[in-house]
Design goal:
alpha+beta; elongated; 5 helices; 3 strands
């Protein structure tokens, strides 16, 4: 994560915000008072919130772990021909 002073951020606001949006990288802005803040796109913020929600959901994490184990053992689910036709819209 890049870091800039609040003065540099203020002087280059448009450029730095556009850069953060384009690169999907947060930007840390430092202040003399020590109260820093971070600039991040709304899309990236929402994605991070969704990730946190998944990580905090123990049942969902257990399902993911079981699915990963099944996949690694190559005992995964194989749909029937009819189910595949439905999935692919044939």
């Amino acid at each position: 994560m890049d870091t800039v002073s609040v003065n540099k951020f203020r002087d280059n606001l448009k450029k730095l915000v556009e850069q953060s949006l384009r690169d999907h990288e947060p930007l840390r802005v430092t202040r003399r008072s020590g109260d820093d803040f971070v600039v991040v796109s709304a899309e990236d913020w929402e994605r991070e919130q969704e990730t946190l929600h998944v990580l905090q959901n123990s049942k969902l994490m257990q399902q993911i772990a079981e699915s990963t184990k099944t996949h690694a053992e190559r005992n995964g689910y194989t749909p029937t021909k009819e189910q595949m036709d439905e999935i692919t819209g044939v």
